[in-house]
Design a protein that fits this description.
The protein is 85% helix and 0% strand. The protein has helices at residues 3-12, 17-28, 32-69.
Length: 71
C-alpha cells in the first residue's frame, strides 16, 4: 500500500487531515513502527466511537421496548 493510498483511506475514514499527513510522512520515510502505532491508535478511537454508538442504539431499543410494552 502506497503513501497516497494510506492518506486517502484515512481521510475516507474521517481522520483529521493533519493526522493523515503525519501518517503519510511515516510511510514515506519508512517509519513503519510509528505508522503501525498510529494506525492502532486510530483503530482504538474508531472502536470507542462504535461502542458509544452501540450504547445509544441499546438505549433507543430499550425506550422503544418500554413504549411498546405500555401501549
Amino acid at each position: 500500500m502506497g503513501t497516497e493510498d494510506i492518506v486517502e483511506c484515512l481521510r475516507h475514514l474521517g481522520i483529521e487531515d493533519e493526522k493523515c499527513i503525519q501518517a503519510g510522512k511515516y510511510k514515506k520515510v519508512g517509519q513503519n513502527e510509528e505508522l503501525l502505532g498510529f494506525l492502532r491508535k486510530c483503530r482504538c478511537t474508531l472502536m470507542d466511537e462504535m461502542h458509544e454508538s452501540q450504547r445509544k442504539v441499546d438505549c433507543m431499543d430499550l425506550m422503544i421496548h418500554r413504549l411498546e410494552k405500555n401501549s
